[in-house]
Structure formats: C-alpha cells, structure tokens
Amino acid sequence: MDETGLREALKGLPIPDLRYLPVTGSTNDDAMAWLAEGAPDGALVIADQQTRGRGRLNRSWHTPPGAALAFSLILRPTEEEASHLAQFTALPSLALVDVLGGHYGLPVEIKWPNDVLLRRKKAAGVLNEVSWNEDRLNGLVQGVGINLAPDSVPAGGEQLYPPTCVEAELGRPVDRVDFLARVLAALFAWRVHLGQPRLLEAWNRHLAFCGQVVAVRSPGRPAERGTVLGVEPSGQLRLALENGGEHLVAAGDVTLRPIENSQVGES
Ligand code: BTN
C-alpha cells in the first residue's frame, strides 16, 4: 500500500492522525496502546499485513500482505454518543453495507452483531474494544478486517463461518485505498445517526437470518434457539422462543448460526 496515496485519499475525512504500518502484530493492539497514550478521536491505525491479527472469541484473523484491509479506528465518544455505546458496533457494518451494496451493487447482509456477509459467506468482521477508566469511558477501538483479494481468504479451519472476499463476489479487482476511503466516509456519516431510528432501521433491514430459526451460544450457557425478530436500540438481538416467549441476547462472546443450514459453522 502506498502511504502517500493513502494519506491523500483520506485527507477530507475527520482523521486527525494516522499511523500506517507495512507490517504489525495487530492494529487493535496498536490502537489500544495509542488510545492509552492519548490518541485523538478519529485517529487511525492501518496495516498492510498483520502477523497476530485478532478476531472475536479469541480467534485469529488472517491478514497477508497486499490483499486485505485491516484497520483500527480510535473513537472518543461524546457523552451523548456514549449513551448509545452498543450501537457503535454497527457503524463499520453499516458502512460496509453502503459500500458493498450501494456502491458495488453486491447483496450484503449483517450477521448480528457485526459480521458482514456476501451471499451468506463472511467477507468482513469487526472487533470492538472498549477502554474504561474506572466507570469512565476512555474511548473505543473499532478494528475492521475486510477480505478484498482472494489471498485474504483464510484456508479452511481458521474461520468456522465460510469465508469469501469482495473480489471473488464481484468478479473484478477493487482498489484498496479507494475502498478504505469509502468505508471510512460512510462510517463517519453513520456516526451522526447514533441513537436515531434511521440507524436501527438500516441495521434491521440488512440483518441476516431475520425470521429464521437460529441457535445462539454464550459462554457457559446452553444454546438458545429462536426466530430472529430484530436488533433492539440496546444492540441486543430479539428472539422469539419456541415456548411463545421472547428473549433478548446481548452481544459479546456470542455465536450465532442458522439451524436450517446445518453445514454452516459458527462465528
Ligand atoms: C471477527 O470477525 O472475528 C473480527 C475480525 C476483526 C479483524 C480486524 S483486522 C484489524 C483489527 N486488528 C485486529 O487484530 N483485529 C481487527
């Protein structure tokens, strides 16, 4: 990735500081450290390659050189924004819906809470990490990994949910820097709608498995089965249970998989 071109492409965005790393362990680790050192709101860490990229649930995330987008955005929510903290998790996914669906015309869905699916295969994931000082919110890091070129698709076994990449679904190459600039512009545009019905409507409109029976697993608890009804303003997933009741599932260390499609693994 050409750093000068990168800086040029992101010039118009509210990114006061940017660290580009040709190779790093994990941009989320870098961003969390930078946040602790006082990084400003909107500071961005981006790497061409990660050697210890991290996904949700302590999984590894594959970022070989030249093929993917791996970045971590540091946000310092205002008090008003912090009252909608759970909705931050949707910002990168909604931004990707705009770019993949709106710009590239691909059929894109959000697998709750924030995986991005193209034709029911995973093309991108988000790892949100929040930093607290006692009970005061310091800030958060939104780590986003996007499989663009075929090399970015992990070989079997690394991810349980079937992976794909944007170029395979699109049938042509995409410009990484242009793609990144579009995603970040869309993310900042969605940020303005935190707490507003418009954000929740979009999250629900693009929610995968809506009306379908899924199994949701949280650590140390039996799997819960229910029909997906939608996402709540709290970011929780509302399920209709088989006994006629309803249940709200909090994001976190949760896996979700559709029941009907038994060959699809968890993620
Ligand atoms: C997931 O789907 O499990 C989330 C994957 C998040 C990967 C990104 S790549 C950039 C940032 N740095 C990391 O180590 N992880 C996130």
Overview in brief:
The protein is an alpha+beta fold. Helices cover 24% and strands 30% of the residues.
Q: Would you write up a description of this structure?
A:
This protein is of the alpha+beta class. The chain folds into two domains: 3-205, Bira Bifunctional Protein, Domain 2 (BirA Bifunctional Protein, domain 2), CATH 3.30.930.10; 213-258, SH3 type barrels, CATH 2.30.30.100. Helices cover 24% and strands 30% of the residues. It has seven helices and twelve strands. The protein has helices at 3-9, 27-36, 79-82, 90-103, 166-170, 176-191, 197-205, and strands at 18-24, 44-50, 68-75, 108-111, 115-118, 121-133, 136-147, 213-217, 224-231, 237-241, 246-249, 255-258. α2 links the parallel β1 (18-24) and β2. The longest helix has 16 residues, at 176-191. The model is unreliable at 261-267 (pLDDT under 50). The structure holds biotin (BTN). Biotin binds at residues 26-28, 50, 53-56, 59, 61, 63, 70-72, 115, 125-127, 143-145.
Biggest sheet strand line-up: 1-2-3-7-6-5-4
**Which CATH class of the largest domain?**
Alpha Beta
Distance between the termini: 29 Å
Structural class: alpha+beta
Please specify the SSE layout and strand pairing.
Blueprint: H1 3-9, E1 18-24, H2 27-36, E2 44-50, E3 68-75, H3 79-82, H4 90-103, E4 108-111, E5 115-118, E6 121-133, E7 136-147, H5 166-170, H6 176-191, H7 197-205, E8 213-217, E9 224-231, E10 237-241, E11 246-249, E12 255-258
Parallel strand pairs: 1-2
Antiparallel strand pairs: 2-3, 3-7, 4-5, 5-6, 6-7, 8-9, 8-12, 9-10, 10-11
Helix pairs in contact: 4-6
